[in-house]
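[Solved] Which block belongs to which protein?

Original post:
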Amino acid sequence: MQLARIAAAVVVLSALVITTPTAAQTTTPTADPRFFAQTGFRIDSDVFWNFFQQRGNVRTFGFPVSRTFTLDGFQIQIFQREIMQLQPDGGVQTLNLLDPGLMPYTKINGSTFPAPDPAIAAATPLVGDPNYNTAIQTFVRNNAPDTFGGQPVNFGTTFFSTVTAQDAPSADPALLPGFDLQIWGAPTSQPAFDPTNHQFIYQRFQRGIMMYDQTCGCTQGLLLADYFKSILTGWNLPPDLQQAAQTSRYYQQYSAIQAQWINRPASLPASDLTNAFVSEQAGGTALSSSFAYGMNVQMTGFSAQGKDLTAGLVKQAGFGWVSQQIQWFAVETAPGVFDWSEVDAVVSTAQRSGMKILFSVVKAPTFYQRAGGGLIPADPTTLRTFMQTMATRYAGKVQAYEIWNEENLSREMGVGNVAATNYLPLLEAGTAGVRAGDPTALVLLGAPSPTGADIAGQSINDLTYLQQLYAINNGEVKGFYDALSVHPSGFSNPPNCTPATPQCSLSGGFSNHDSFFAFTRVGEYRTLMMQQGEGAKQIWFTEFGYCSSPTPPAGFEYCSSLTELNQANFLVQAFTMARGLSYVGGMMMWNLNFQQVVPQTNEMWGFGIVHADGSARPAYSALVQMPKP
């Protein structure tokens, strides 16, 4: 499988440009001024921070889009426009980003830039020239005009006003042009119109490209360094740049499952990309463990390499949890006879990747099932034994267990077994087993499936089901779970939509019941918990996703109304909303990689965020880049 290759990119010029930030954009509302919530990264290095402040701040560099890491023997940090590099003498310089060895390209994201002009290169003053400082300023003024093609491009003015006296108040004003040169380098081309869009005029410099936009009459720098990050990672890589960069030694080198997180270390010596693009938080500490960012994965049945690649995708996204469903019947092959080989391999893989683990246990072996059919055991004590055996074996290695799955549906309980009175004994037995085997593990009450349908023997409205469960023996259930798990679904409704705004449904349907609105439904669960005196317990989203599929199966028609970009945007929005709810302990995105194990006719296919070959859908890239405070 190939890791994290983006199949689609937004081909619009605005992706290359950032307007001059306002004061509100420049100042992040946090007690840590070095942390930028806009991108989820922090400027940890004191020398980089000082350089950032004294060379124009966000206005010049854009926001940080990486941590500090080692590339080609130097400590660097990537910003949207520039790449800072720590020099051997302790000083800071910016990379000549457009040099042949880095990003010498002329086409990015549908835009065409002027190529380097050999005549201009030959005329550029040499650094060793005794009159270099004067000569280079004259050279820039002669070759970076303020007028071109009858348009006020202001390339020279932009160059010499990049770093102001306010940015470097203690510096001799005579040094400011040299600071501007640090940011842009020398011009390497004449100005030129974009051949496909004459609204834009570009000029190429060693370290960046200026763009004049006739629609606004403004001149600004393009976000080129962000595209170097895309080359390294493969994320958000436009097709034209992907084609041009395939032979680059930097191309798709970033990989969480390799040593030093480098795919081809022989072509990238003296480098270490470990955690380079894993989001940080204010204060520069590791991501908080108070909220569980996780993904539902399929690893059982995979080869060792397949398991490692799956865990690597989760880790590369900056997520700290994996959720794997465990089929009881596949482990207990005869009464008291267990085959733990697959589960052992999943646990070992997750541990090597530093992942925490949630197991959801379902489907009793046939020799334990109720007479007449059904998926639950006739004797709940058999589940207690199984859960105790499992929790003992993986004590300290598996952090959470969900007791059964969507027990308000017959497909999970068996026809005729859908009743809270049938689930409670299972929950009590399973919880007792986990607590006996590993008292530190979190026990989750199995999530009901969101549905408004009450069909005898088949399904019960999820909210009604929980009300019935709490009603048994005056709330007996309260002693047998640590948190409530939920499986709300987005259907075709953006996360912030409610039953009061049914018109926001992208499909025009799936909007006539509260269960179609994920956060509304979870809010109703929370209200019920408060009414039951269970407000101290958290809610965990153990499955949450959005389906995007051009050919969904019956019952999932809404999937065809969501584009891959809708899926990406809605997942990020949902994580942000869930993280903002104090009573939510975590969210396990549904799903990472089920396209590798089910056909497109299966509804699980559309929820997946990587393709069958392991390449990324836009949702994966969006979640990688999502800040995870």
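(Second protein starts here: sequence line, then its structure tokens.)
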Amino acid sequence: MAAEEHEIVRVVIPVNGDWHDVRIPGVIVGATSRRYYEVELWVRDTGDADPAPRRLRAVAAGQKFPASAASVSSVVDDAGLVFHLVEDLASSQGAARS
């Protein structure tokens, strides 16, 4: 019997001040920012064919976000800009937390 295999996939969240409903097919294992005003999530794809949406927002350092939001990750891009990824737990649809 072959062992189950997973892969690491990339999910991009733009830094534009908007909330984004994103279907993340597994567990967040890392984050980076290689492109201007984008946060890249690296996700271990666990094969969930229909993951519940998660409400995420990427903000630049100093920008405000709701106190009820959970911090997911912080990244520094090549220019030294710092971005923070937060999740609106009240609006996310019960997805597994990383």
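Accepted answer:
You had them paired correctly. Confirming on the second one: The mean pLDDT is 88.
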